[in-house]
Amino acid sequence: MTKSRIAAVDVGNDSIKAIFGDFDNELNIPNIVARDTEDRPVIGIEELDSKDPLDGIHVRVHSPALKENNVIYRVGNLATKSDNATELDPGSSKSEEDQTLIMLFATLALDAVKDENGKLFPKNKNVIDANYTLGTGLPLREVKEGKDAGYRSKLVGSVHQVEFLVTPKYQGIKVNIKFDEVKVYPEGFAAYINLVMDNSLKIINKDLIDRRILIQDIGGLSTDIAVIKNRNVDDDKAQGFNLGVSEALEQIREEIRSKHGVELDSRRDVVEIITRKNDRNHIMVKGSRTSVHDITDRILLELAKKQYRLLRNVWAKNSQTEICYFVGGGATVLKEYIKTLNNNLDGYNIEFFEDEKESIWMMANAYYKLIMDFVKKSEKSSAKSETVKS
């Protein structure tokens, strides 16, 4: 029997953040797909195998979980170059979109084909059988609506196949993915776990455990505000909202195109312009460095006001809250705007993570800790039952 491999996958609106096996094995892929044909042309005279597979993910995905089965896609960086590339739409449910599953399966398949995993997943005539124990998550709103159970049932009990077509190094390999176990966690709860536990699942933030806190997780399509008290997430008071940064990023992208005639490939390019250390809020127009501060400031300040309103409303209903932590990729984008609003208005006790990677990878890290905890408890339980039997 093929050994099950630990996978923690955060299917974020901007990109997929995944951890496999241990904390050092990370994968980050833009969450963009484009339908394609089997014989996509390879541009350039160099050999296909000399290129980075992550720049040429070209796959056929077969799964009973998909509404549209057996379709060929460009994924990630390759998809950004397509005219028909799609990103998740505001208002859509992550658990019900084919794109969520395509990205999940493609990410797992990329892990399965890597050379260092050859012993773990034996290859037989270019077919790899890969078993995973998966920790992932959904926005709080979807979990409260019970969509986590349906999402999980799509994954377990079936074989999901990813066939690499014109992909560097992996062309012609098929990966059959099975899930031994799937745990779907609410995103706000996951953020709390990440705040209080280290990578070895030991409590590191004892001061935080018994405090009343809020965690505002701003994503691409949604915002979750987890209410933590008595070491638990208060499911009744925690709230999920259909408000993320995607629409604002799309608006910025459109206004840059309209005003400056510059076409950005994806929302991720917009995030890069807003958050990079050098030349922040600047683009190149006909070879000249040009500020887009007027566009980004106006649109992001408007969104920050809406996010601040959410904070104010939830805090009013949980008046004994001591601190609110802002996490997620959206928090990184809106950080300075929310801080300015707070300084000028209510002056809540709020905190952001200065390490942008820590904020962006918080969900994937949390899913890894939670799934590792589940696996360790399961192993202890089975060891005990074996002892009783003998």
UniProtKB/TrEMBL annotation:
Entry-linked Pfam families: Alp7A_like_C, ALP_N
Domain Actin-like protein N-terminal: start-end pairs: 8-189
TM helices/strands, residue ranges: none
InterPro entries assigned: Alp7A-like_C, ALP_N, ATPase_NBD
Domain (Alp7A-like C-terminal): residue spans on this chain: 213-351
Gene3D superfamilies: 3.30.420.40
Name this protein carries in UniProt: ParM/StbA family protein
